[in-house]
C-alpha cells in the first residue's frame, strides 16, 4: 500500500496514495491504524483524496479505526472523499457513524475543537 503519514502533536494524518481501498489493502490500513493507536496517537485524519473506489473490506477497516479512536474519546476523521466513495458510505448508512469532512483543514479544525472540548470537560470534573 502506498501511503504517507504525517505525525503532528495532536493528530496523525494518513494520506492514501492508492485508487482502491479494497481487500488487498484494507488489512494494511487496519494494521497501520492499530499501530498508531498503540503508539498513543489520539486522533487520526485519513485523507482519501486519491481513493476512487472502496469495497466492503475497505469500509470495515474504516469502521475499526473509527471504533478504536472514538472509544478513547479521540477523532477518526475522513477527509476529501470523492463522489463515488461518498455515495457508497451513504448507501451503507455509515455517514451517520463516520466523521466526514470536505477538506483536510476542516478535519484538523475538528480535531482541535475535540481536544479543547475534552480539556474543558476534564477540568470541570
TrEMBL record:
PROSITE patterns: STAS (PS50801)
SUPFAM superfamilies: SpoIIaa-like
Stretches assigned to coiled coil: none
Chain ranges of the STAS domain: 19-111
Pfam name, any one: STAS
InterPro entries: Anti-sigma_ant, STAS_dom, STAS_dom_sf
Top-level taxonomic group: Bacteria
GO MF entries: anti-sigma factor antagonist activity
Family (UniProt): Belongs to the anti-sigma-factor antagonist family.
Identification of the protein by name: Anti-sigma factor antagonist
Organism, as annotated: Persicobacter diffluens
Amino acid at each position: 500500500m502506498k501511503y504517507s503519514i504525517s505525525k503532528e502533536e495532536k493528530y496523525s494524518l494518513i494520506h492514501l496514495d492508492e485508487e482502491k481501498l479494497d481487500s488487498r489493502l484494507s488489512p494494511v490500513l487496519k494494521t497501520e491504524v492499530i499501530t498508531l493507536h498503540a503508539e498513543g496517537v489520539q486522533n487520526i485524519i485519513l485523507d482519501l483524496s486519491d481513493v476512487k473506489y472502496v469495497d466492503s473490506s475497505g469500509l470495515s477497516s474504516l469502521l475499526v479505526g473509527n471504533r478504536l479512536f472514538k472509544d478513547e474519546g479521540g477523532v477518526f476523521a475522513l477527509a476529501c472523499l470523492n463522489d463515488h466513495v461518498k455515495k457508497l458510505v451513504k448507501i451503507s448508512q455509515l455517514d451517520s457513524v463516520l466523521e466526514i469532512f470536505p477538506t483536510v483543514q476542516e478535519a484538523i479544525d475538528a480535531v482541535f475543537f475535540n481536544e479543547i472540548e475534552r480539556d474543558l470537560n476534564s477540568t470541570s470534573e
